[in-house]
Design goal:
By secondary structure, the chain is of the alpha+beta class. It is 17% helix and 36% strand.
């Protein structure tokens, strides 16, 4: 089990990849961007990016409007 931070909240998970965590939290809907430990990470890499103890993940949802 790893303890990570997602959008500023501490979370314990048994998931192995970033993609699985953001899917479970419902953060992968629509248009979104993911930053892992301060680095913007392409969505194409999230399924292979393994979680590491203490990892900091920020997910930002794009919202349209005028």
């Amino acid at each position: 089990m790893s303890t990570i931070s997602v959008n500023g909240k501490s979370l314990q998970t048994t998931h192995q990849t970033v993609q699985l965590v953001i899917n479970e939290l419902g953060l992968s809907q629509g248009r979104y961007a993911v930053e892992v430990d301060g680095e913007l990470t392409p969505k194409s890499e999230l399924a292979q990016l393994r979680l590491v103890e203490g990892m900091n993940i920020e997910v930002v949802q794009a919202v349209g409007g005028g």
